[in-house]
Amino acid sequence: MQTVLRSNEFSCPSCVDKIEKHLVQQPGVQAAKVHFNTGRIVIDHDEQTGTEDLIAAVGAVGYTATHRR
């Protein structure tokens, strides 16, 4: 599965790196790519990993993310 989250809190490339590294350490997450210019966070994950889990993982490193369908 793939989920796209959005955040406008990125202020530097190290923010992007921090979020990507944390997300790929989460159970069920295979890949994560943060697009600095657009604020998109694209996450490939298994079916057991929910959107709320992904939002919480981004929050755990100090950023707010939202999901719009």
Structure, explained:
- This protein is an alpha+beta fold.
- The chain has one domain (2-60): 2-Layer Sandwich (Alpha-Beta Plaits).
- Helices cover 32% and strands 26% of the residues.
- It has helices spanning 13-24, 51-60, and strands spanning 2-6, 29-35, 40-45.
- Strands 1-3-2 form a 3-stranded antiparallel beta sheet, covered by helices on one side.
- The radius of gyration is 11 Å and the shape is globular.
- The mean pLDDT is 94.
By DSSP, the count of extended strands is: 3
Helix content: 25-40%
In this structure, how is the largest beta sheet organized? 3 strands, antiparallel
Q: What is the chains' assembly state? A: single chain
Distance between the termini: 14 Å
Which CATH first-tier class would you pick?
Answer: Alpha Beta
By helix and strand content, what is the structural category?
alpha+beta
Across the major sheet, the strand order is 1-3-2
Report strand %. 25-35%
C-alpha geometry = globular
- CATH fold call: Alpha-Beta Plaits
Total count of helical runs of at least 4 residues: 2
Poorly predicted runs of 5 or more residues = none
